[in-house]
Amino acid sequence: MFSRLRNDFPILDTRVGESSLSYLDSGATSQKPQCVIDTFTEYYSQRNAAVHRGAHSLAVMATDAFEAGREAVADLVGGAPEQVVWTKNATEALNVVALGIDRASHGFGGEAAQRFGLGPADSIVVTEMEHHANLVPWQQLAQSTGAQLRWLPVTDAGELDLSDLESIVDETTKVFAFTHVSNVLGTINPVDTLVTRARQVGALVVLDACQSVPHMPVNFADLDVDFAAFSAHKALGPTGLGTLWGKTDLLNSLPPVLTGGSMITTVTMEDSAFMDAPQRFEAGTQPVAEVAAFTTAVNYLAEVGLEKIFDHERELARVLLDGIAKIPGITVLGAAENRIGTVAFDVDGVHAHDVGQYLDSQGVAVRVGHHCAQPLHRRFGVTATTRASTYLYNNTEDCEQFLAALAEVRPFFGVQ
């Protein structure tokens, strides 16, 4: 089944020199099936118009396509369409929450927003494995409000160390933000345990789901998180589009940080009143073509089946890990059993960028660097790693091509 799916992705026919392309960088961005590319083109050629702003036929078709995307995403991740907010990426979605809390902490949003207020007596908790997008906004919020920033550490196995969970997440904690799946380690975190602790102390839960939604079944409502964010481009969709999911009452109470047209009910020269979610967070012209294309991507994932995708990637992860273990001089970061098909590693004596360039010369595309997770790399004593990450269009041949090239890296650079 998954070998057949490769035919849906035209870019996978690319040749790199004399080698076929083995694309193992889906953790950074996924490739797009032809149906998603076609939808993007079709929207601009047949339905392009401003949404929610016209009564003519094109405007109606454009608006229908725009709102159909919310329904598709709600079906994918649980909840209702009005809980789905469009942003330009997951980073913006997380910042919308952090900056909204910041505004509430400084008196904006009225009585309804007071529930979000933070001060010096409060704490924000993250983890040591966060992507910078789910760390830097909370650092900034802590600095703005005086709240204390704390974090759960990571074990040598690449899992969260929960031994001090109750003292780190305590009665002062107002926000608990963590990744569902590490973009470096591939580790799947125990969301139920973390949410349970947050509920015990009354903390808001913010979930970074960028590396989970594309790769496994996820239901935000069942997970009982308060806010969640993920990107379209990692889930077969286009760039320039992200999703903020939130519980309805929280979204309607959170002060917006982007203001202007399309998100207001009444405007006078002195003041303005804002719409309920999701429109209150969607000021200005929206990425309608991207939403239409992402709808096709979401439907594609649903048709394939995320449970099947998850099982497929776990099999590929085992091929990668077993193969790497046979190559001398390579250290894999983390060893979690509960994981997706993402593997980051250090090659003894060879810088990650050199590793990546050699693999590229052999047709293998991987990610190199700190993967926007400097604290996590520092935890493991390295400044950069090479990361291979799989998706539904990969197969064992991709993994074998990668492993054959990886085995040649140290000899190529003369490292004994």
UniProtKB/TrEMBL annotation:
One of its GO terms (biological process) is cysteine metabolic process. Its EC number is 2.8.1.7. The keyword Lipid metabolism does not apply. Residues 23-402 form the Aminotransferase class V domain. Keywords: Pyridoxal phosphate, Transferase. SUPFAM superfamilies: PLP-dependent transferases. It catalyses: (sulfur carrier)-H + L-cysteine = (sulfur carrier)-SH + L-alanine. InterPro entries: Aminotrans_V_dom, Aminotrans_V_PyrdxlP_BS, Cys_dSase_SufS, PyrdxlP-dep_Trfase, PyrdxlP-dep_Trfase_major, PyrdxlP-dep_Trfase_small. Belongs to the class-V pyridoxal-phosphate-dependent aminotransferase family. Csd subfamily. This is Cysteine desulfurase.
